[in-house]
Design brief:
Number of helices: 22
Low-confidence stretches: none
Distance between the termini: 68 Å
Structural class: mainly alpha
Largest sheet: 6 strands, mixed
Order of helices and strands: HHHHHHHHHHHHHHHHHHEHHEEEHEHE
Helix content: 55-70%
Strand order of the largest sheet: 4-3-2-1-5-6
Length: 525
């Protein structure tokens, strides 16, 4: 059971090495935001971005940074970290990877001890490998890896509750423990809330359910304590998101886009890691209910747990389909192994067939786990190739060739400067003074939320920027905002898109793709 956690740690580090720096256009959001807010917490100030809320992640980042420099002041830590943010993001990432590997190890040992079945334990440990969405996020500094670890802890608690008489004897303790897990999870990311319908079915007692709900709320308040001063922003944003079907509360067709919602739900549910456990659970539950009725029995503990898992995964699908994003499904993906483990336990309780039949079914389950592990090798290799290809494509444009130009970055670009600027912006502009001495003076960024052209000195006029440089270089994956900005502020400016890559738009004026000026004096001067 040690091998899978070790493989996870090794694979996560390899993917991180091949996935490029954290300022790559695909991953700068939100890793840099969490780094800057971690510095805010080191300085004992309220995080600037409370929207996930993500508070446990911010606290963990702060703890790692403070542990790395225990004798430095908050100011010194900020100066050290921002002088080399990539090294410190890798430090935090490595600390997280080791932590999740240890949680995987604990989950495997716990499941083996409680279930007496090594194959169920190994299946539980394979959770992070069952979807490449999980593994692709595993090394990032963001909520998803934390939720991955949390689902393993939740799985351990569910398995403990399935022991004979355990839940009956300690129902209050389980309600409190489930409530703390729910509070921690929702404080990490609001989108995990649907998963925590699971304990409601498992607890099976009104008093325990009420206690669970109260502790969940108190736990949420506890784990978001550092952002109490920003609750108005959190709930204001959350309210807008819930009232909108567009990404990040964009103006759209209402709470749910009825034209797109069914298609989105089906697409999300089409992943085998989602629909296979849910459908299999429904079949097993139907058979179990038939047997229970024939015997005059009620719902068994295993059946309630399985129903809770299937319901949690289904509700997560329905919630995420409103604003479909694969990352939001990580908690549901991580419950798939638990569903199969509980399913196997429930079916085994039926004692169907002779002893040889049960023996061969156990061997079949072991073979299934082995085949699943082998299949993931190919998935990991494919993911590694995809990440390497993204880095290669991004590297075909060398920003250093355009050092003579005004360089404007638009979300999301592959740019160290943009990652630093945006991290500072999202965390409340608390470290702007430090950035002035760290970033090139000719680097600017467009904050598309406010359509404001900025650098470390604050808002800038495009006309002043153009007057100061002989050429213009613009880079970012979202072409729409910069196109609208240029039309509004420089309608006569002629830009070319010949340097663009597959993933990012690269617009230039008075310079070719090799950084050579096309005219000594540009037309705008």
């Amino acid at each position: 059971m040690t091998i899978i956690p070790v493989v996870f740690a090794v694979v996560a580090h390899i993917l991180r090495a091949h996935g490029g720096p954290f300022w790559m256009w695909t991953i700068l959001d939100p890793s840099y935001y969490y780094l800057f807010d971690g510095l805010n917490l080191v300085n004992l100030t309220t995080p600037g971005q409370p929207f996930h809320p993500g508070t446990p992640v911010q606290v963990m980042v702060a703890l790692v940074l403070k542990a790395a420099y225990p004798l430095q002041s908050a100011r010194q830590i900020a100066e050290t970290v921002l002088a080399d943010p990539e090294a410190h993001l890798r430090l935090v990432s490595s600390a997280f990877i080791v932590l999740w590997a240890l949680v995987m190890l604990a989950a495997g040992l716990f499941a083996h001890r409680r279930l007496g079945d090594i194959w169920s334990a190994l299946l539980l440990q394979l959770g992070p490998f069952l979807s490449m969405v999980i593994l692709m996020n595993a090394y990032h500094v963001k909520p998803e890896p934390v939720l991955m670890g949390l689902m393993l802890v939740l799985s351990m608690v569910v398995i403990a509750a399935l022991e004979p008489q355990s839940l009956d004897r300690h129902r209050t303790r389980y309600a409190v423990l489930f409530g703390l897990l729910a509070g921690f999870g929702i404080a990490t990311k609001l989108t995990v809330a649907p998963i925590f319908v699971l304990p409601l079915l498992l607890l099976g007692n009104l008093r325990a359910m009420v206690l669970y709900g109260v502790v969940s709320v108190l736990g949420f308040l506890l784990f978001t304590a550092p952002i109490w001063g920003a609750y108005d922003r959190l709930w204001g944003f959350a309210g807008k998101v819930m009232a909108s079907s567009g990404a990040y509360a964009a103006a759209d067709s209402g709470v749910i886009d009825l034209a797109a919602y069914p298609r989105a739900a089906l697409k999300i549910a089409s992943r085998p890691v989602v629909h296979v456990p849910i459908l299999a659970a429904l079949v097993v539950l139907a058979l179990d209910r038939r047997r229970a009725r024939a015997a005059g029995a009620g719902w068994s503990l295993e059946a309630r747990a399985l129903a809770g898992i299937a319901l949690a995964m289904a509700v997560q699908v329905l919630a995420v389909a409103k604003q479909p994003t694969a990352n939001y499904m990580v908690p549901a993906y991580m419950l798939a192994p638990l569903a199969l483990v509980v399913m196997r336990r429930l079916v085994a309780s039926w004692e169907w067939g002779s002893a040889p039949v049960r023996t061969w079914s156990a061997r079949g389950f072991a073979l299934f786990v082995c085949l699943l592990a082998v299949m993931q090798v190919f998935s990991v290799l494919r993911l590694d190739r995809d990440l390497t290809d993204r880095v290669r494509v991004a590297g075909t444009v060398d920003d250093d060739r355009f050092r003579a130009c005004a360089r404007i970055y638009v979300f999301p670009p592959s740019s160290h400067s943009f990652a630093m600027y945006r991290g500072d912006w999202e965390s409340g502009l608390r470290h702007t003074a430090l950035l002035r001495g760290l970033l090139p003076g000719n680097d600017y960024w467009l904050e598309q939320g406010t359509m404001d052209l900025r650098n470390a000195a604050g808002s800038q006029k495009l006309s002043d920027v153009l007057a100061a440089y002989p050429c213009l270089f613009i880079r970012g994956a979202h072409r729409g905002p910069i196109t609208r900005y240029l039309q509004a502020h420089a309608p006569d400016l002629k830009v070319r898109g010949k340097c663009s890559t597959r993933d990012e738009a690269v617009l230039t004026a008075n310079v070719d793709c090799r950084g050579r000026l096309l005219a000594d004096r540009p037309s705008w001067q």
